[in-house]
Amino acid sequence: MSNSPIDGRGYTIELLFSHRFRLDPYQREYTWSTDDVRRLLHDLKRRFLHSWDPQDTRQAVGSYTPYFLGPYVFYQSDGISYLVDGQQRVTTLHLLLIHMRRLLLEQEQPTEAGQLERLISSVQYGKVTFAVDIEERAPLLTALLDRSPYELSPDANPSIRNLWARSRDIEEEFPTELLGEALPYFHDWLLNRVGLVGIEALDRGNGWEIFETMNDRGTRLSPVDLLKSFLLAEADPSQRDSLNATWRSMLTNLIAVGNVIPADFVKTLLLAKYAAMNEEANDVQQIEMSFHEWIRKNHRRIGLVGRADFARFITQDLKHLGECYAMLRHAAAFPQQGLEAVYYNETNGISDQYRLILAAVDPGDGQSVQKHKARLIAGFLDLLFVQQLIGGYVPQGADMAATVDQLVPAIRDCRSSDELSRILAAELPAGDIFPDFAEYGLRTDNRRQVRYLLARMTDFAEIGIGNLSRIQEYLSETKPYQVEHIWAVHFSRYKDLVKTQADFDKIRNRLGGLLLLHQSDNASYRDDPYMDKLEHYQRQNILAAALHPTTHRRNPRFARFLKKHDLQGLMRPYPGDFKVGANEERQKLYKRLCEIIWSPEELGLSRKDVAAQHRRSKPTKSATRAHYGVEVSQLMTAGILTAGTRLNPGRHPADAFAEILPDGRIRTFDGQVFGALSPAGAHVRGTKASPGWDFWHVERDGALIPIKTLRDEYLSSAR
Q: Among 241, 410, 507, 650, which one has the highest count of C-beta atoms within 10 angstroms of its own C-beta?
């Protein structure tokens, strides 16, 4: 038997990057979006955390569930591998390795960081060659690897611009669950348990032929096509023509939004209406992997028994809810009146909002009812995101999945919008919705989220004085706005106001000392003294312009805005200087703006007459496994730790201490509040990553021991 001239074999990530790649001329530009990066990181995180246990040895990773990333096509010429297909994934994985190397160095894991460096690049005769060897990318990749400043050239081509943007996405969207002690385990798993299939072509022409065959030739049935075949086959034969017409109309409507939308819709519908939200049922994983097979196996469970049921599923569930889903996806792409929160959630990566909305929408609901329910749910998730952010967590869009999963069963049973409002309102705290606002500010781990807060407040104020909304510009990647510090980064200028560098950093980074400006303006006068900046601020958005006294003179639109929201005493000018007191006053102003923008009552979530109110002090974690690790609150419940316990940073300065709050959060010496040990440790160290359970120590019998010791004792006693 002769061997095939086309060779295909499996490559782990480590083996993949032992090669050096160049791009074939047929390859398109690097075009992955923020959503593509989010999806990759989320999928990798989910698969890894499904296996990881904090008490595992590193050797145990070798038996963790593997993950397949698909095929890529290449050919070799003169000892060089040329990518014909797959550069989007390979390029993004390359960026991921660069970022992980930085995180491992910050965690003082030099061996693992060195292993990644050898995969990222090689050195021969003093010349650095990157694994994806494209000359025009080298300066950017060098800057990322060296952690040195990089200025994007105005005439940079689309690939470089996108490469730069996606590198920032990876930094900001890297899962928080992997920034602590899980990081070295994730490193091992990524290199050795994640793989692709490499198809080696004979030459360039053969590679292009394979590429065309894989992407263009043949009519391969998609899962959506297979589902259609099953449903029509089970329906009344006399109705198949009309049902087929209904199906095509639904499909056309969804494809108008995007090619992958039909499959996303069917998955979302099944998860929203029918899937059991517990791991034992395994519905979520099966639907995401093969939804058409899941329906075949579970059709009776979801009410598809007789021929009429299959017809109803197409003409009602799929048709009407498909129209709702298309409406939501259009609203996610462009802000629409009444559905603005859908756009905000999409910006923050909260894709699970669609699942919760479809759970609430009945196929018989008219469009006005659909929009009202969508507004309630999207506004609720946006509010919850901001609450968690200000409460010391750094929520990412995917973190909302657990909250959504827990709410779906109750939301399915809602019979009216009023009932939906009551269920959502019961999830909100009574009283002050932002109790931790006083010291909230910019940290190493929350720049994107702080930018979001500033964008929303700025847009609200601009609309309030009669200007058009510019929220798309404020949140856009192509017209980037940046966080501006009112105090320049010069401690020497403020020594008469603050005693130490730490106090200066704390006050400078407080939200009240920040603005949102276009990056070109921010870059031009970021180091100027306040009095020089003030003249520039006058020509900026109203939140910045309000600092200048001229803005408050003969400005009736501005005066009406201040009076309407009772902001006269908070939104005032600072003509002489911006001192500590001014910073504190602006912090109060920003809190008031957030209370107005995210008012539960204005969102339709009245908290009056709601039974069993409770304070959601931290985001709900999924109950499907203990793969998120033990939380401090669990040790408190077990009596091992108590509120007020002092945490010592071990080898670091003893004055950089922290304490445990009554709800299990961590407050560091400078007043910052964190939802977990690892981000608190990273803040103290000034890094992105920190193994919090090893970093923080507690006193026992006169000696300091890592808090991890207490956790391991707790886990051992619980088993």
A: 507
